[in-house]
Specification:
Layout (H helix, E strand, L loop, with lengths): L2 H9 L11 E5 L2 E4 L4 E4 L2 H4 L8 H11 L13 H12 L5 E5 L2 H17 L7 E5 L8 H5 L4 H4 L9 E4 L3 H7 L5 E6 L2 E2 L5 E2 L2 H13 L3 E5 L23 E4 L10 E5 L1 H4 L15 H14 L2 H24 L3 E7 L2 E6 L3 H11 L1 E2 L1 E2 L4 E4 L7 H15 L1
Parallel strand pairs: 3-15, 5-6, 5-7, 7-10, 10-11
Antiparallel strand pairs: 1-2, 2-3, 4-12, 8-9, 11-12, 13-14, 14-17, 16-17
Helix pairs in contact: 3-11, 4-11, 12-14, 13-14
């Protein structure tokens, strides 16, 4: 590491354990460091870079978005791109209304506020939000209270009140979901940070039935698993349910910061001007780029590609597990997979880095794979081979 890079790194708050190399460019599904070494990317900026790197269409969308000079105007004024994108989000989903923001944590914080605003109109004491064991919903005070990671939570207590974590058990939830006090339950169809745990469709259907019966909102968090990563555009579609609120973020704008909260009209009717806001959310530049990303990822051919190659990837990973005593379990769907390993996950990540493969962890002994959604089978196979070597 050069002196200049070391000095710059020293100036950044140490909230991440960063890899030692400096990334300088990307092409396709590979990243390159300052020494010219190539890395096959199975992280995709933590599920953000769905279109990979150097995508011609994405670059054109960014250039075109600059032509009219509107990068930001605030939400005091209307712009066409934001309204066009909201119409596409509504048409593709259960929702009637969209709120834009800048990140996944903001989307979930917004969803909590919206849920409580709706709930107060139902019953004076109705305010509680329940998350599930293994959940990760963000690191802000509200979302951190809904995140099941003791090491993230302990240094920042007391967290936001009225938010609790329940087991992934319908029997326990049936006893907890008091319609007089509980406003919403939040669930990830695939718990990404929580070990890539695919929530059973039967459980999701049971939870939807229970919340609907008791006039409790169901919030679906698709920040990591939505926008095509599971093989359908929305992950909730696979369970055959309809939520009341949905949050999305990571891949929405091709690497530009963006998030959104989608909701039914019944929920939206509770919100009044001034109840919530954002300075940057849904600006004209970012939504112009997000329109292009939406069209690319909503394409049935792309979704079929993820379905077919995701199934192939799952089979290849299971074959790796069958021949390795160092792999305990494989879980996932589409282009989001978790592998439980006997070694520390950070050690496998480090060995993969040396081999030219970027992977990340989802717990002390779980490897997480999040390749760009455009990755072809040959590169997936190359990645599995490198992963096998890294596992040992």
């Amino acid at each position: 590491m050069t002196t200049a890079i070391a000095a710059a790194t020293d100036a950044i708050l140490g909230t991440y354990r960063r890899a030692p190399m400096e990334l300088v460019r990307g092409a396709g599904v590979e990243l390159f460091d300052a020494d010219g070494k190539a890395y096959l990317d199975f992280v995709a900026g933590i599920a953000v870079n769905a279109l990979g790197y150097g995508d011609a269409g994405l670059e054109k969308a960014m250039r075109d978005a600059l032509e009219d000079g509107l990068v930001h105007v605030s939400n005091l004024y209307r712009t066409a791109s934001g309204e066009r994108l909201s119409a596409k989000l509504v048409e593709s989903s259960f929702a009637d209304r969209v709120f834009y923001c800048n990140s996944g944590a903001e989307a979930n914080e917004g969803a909590f506020k919206i849920a409580r605003r709706w709930a107060r109109a139902q019953a004076p004491a109705k305010h509680e939000i329940i998350a599930l064991r293994g959940a990760f919903h963000g690191r802000l005070f509200g979302t951190l209270a809904a995140t099941d990671r003791p090491q993230y939570r302990m240094p920042f207590r007391p967290l936001a009140g009225g938010i609790s974590i329940a087991e992934r058990d319908l029997g326990e939830l049936e006893g907890m979901l008091n319609p007089e006090t509980v406003a919403a339950v939040i669930v990830e169809p695939v718990q990404g940070e929580g070990g890539v745990r695919v929530i059973e469709h039967e459980f999701l259907r049971g939870l939807r039935a229970l919340t609907k019966e008791r006039n409790i909102l169901l919030i679906v968090d698709e920040i990591q698993c939505g926008y095509g990563r599971t093989g359908t555009f929305w992950a909730y579609e696979q369970a055959g349910i309809t939520p009341d609120i949905l949050t999305v973020a990571k891949p929405m704008a091709g690497g530009l910061p963006m998030g959104a909260v989608l909701m039914t009209q019944a929920v939206a009717d509770a919100m009044q001007p001034g109840d919530h806001g954002t300075t940057f959310g849904g600006g004209p530049f970012v939504t112009s780029v997000a329109l292009h990303v939406f069209d690319r990822l909503y394409d049935p051919a792309l979704l079929q590609h993820v379905t077919d190659n995701g199934a192939w990837l799952g089979t290849a990973l299971q074959a790796l597990a069958d021949r390795s005593l160092k792999v305990r379990a494989v879980r996932g769907v589409g282009f989001i997979w978790g592998i439980d390993v006997t070694d520390a996950a950070k050690d496998v990540v480090a060995r993969a880095l040396d081999l030219g493969l970027l992977i990340c962890s989802a717990g002390e002994h779980t490897i997480r794979l999040l390749p760009p959604l455009v990755m072809q089978r040959a590169d997936l196979a190359r990645g599995v081979k490198l992963l096998s070597e890294a596992i040992g």
